[in-house]
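for ur thesis appendix - RAP domain-containing protein. copy paste whatever u need, i formatted it the way the template wanted (i think)
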Amino acid sequence: MSRALIFSKNYLSKKFKIKQPNELYRELLNNVKLFQVDELQKISTDELIHYIIFLGTFHERRNQGDKAKKITLECLKQYRKKMVKNSYEINSQILLSLSNVLLYDEQMVQEIINQVDQDKETLSIKDLIKFQHCLYKLNIHNEKLSDFVLQNFIKQKDQVDYLEYIHDLHIRSNLLRMGFVDEQVISILLKGFQEKLNSSQNSYFTSKSCFQYCQLMYNLYPEIIDKPLLELKPEDGNVFAPQFNDMLKDYIISKKLVDHKKSFQSIEYYLNFQKLNILNIKEDIISRNLTNLEQDVQDLLNKLSYKNARAERVMIYDVDYLVNDDIILTCNDPVHFVEDLNGKILTINPNHIMQSRHLSATSKYKVYDINYHEWIHLTEEQKIDKLKSFID
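the 3d part is after this line
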């Protein structure tokens, strides 16, 4: 937890007399009256910021889906009317909240971008990487700041640890495939990562790092997607082929750990820790409850007697529904889309674009999106016709 999140959690915990943060989060979302416009207007700017930071950055938001997004949206609408100058620490958490629940407001985001532009010489490379990641999730591309972050990344690469390198590279490699980053930029960063791999053996793997490492490899070497581990090699024309062998060992470890992990688990793997390899497996803090959209799709699939499996592992992804072993249905709820504060859909999450690209890279599967904002306007008969058009 960040210092700002701890502070906001403690403030709200004391106010509502609820110590357990997950319970506090759920209680807030169930307090409908609290987040009505007339009630929010009575709240001070400082208190609004506490709500925004806690609701938008605490991990329980991922279990609450659209409900968390709607409540955070109401808080942000009121905050926009009362905006004040904040420290970068506070503004960075507001930006993190926006990017976590995929809400965009030009005034708020531009103010934070301007602040970063003014203070960029004083910010650490770790702060700059986190800032750029927030912009990425909102599908915002600021070339000037991106170049500044890149140059500082290269200068201060010794301060960037293995996990941060993977996190940044998997984002930039996706932007490469989306047409926003040049191959030369990736090559420069890969050479630095290659040096890190060759200078010391990574000994700590997490669910997140393994998953992102696989995504990174699929972005750089799409030709290896869904290939057996003993048959992996880059194509001759791949510009990143020189780095492949150095990156292969950690990919094999990461892929095996992802394959071993169940959808409801998280893992930590320690390689050669006191001459032992230690694998810790625990239940994930993120639950996998059905959304209304997923439930509706599943009910109709069952009604039509289609063979289907929910949260089925396909490559590294737990897809929403695998139908008849070769049709992938992805249910895109509001939390998959970047929206403005008026509810207008601006774009889809770039991580969804990456997942779809990877899943579509083989001839084994056909991938179809079911988008909530289209689905909710269909009659049951139209929904059935749509599913049949995908499957039959």
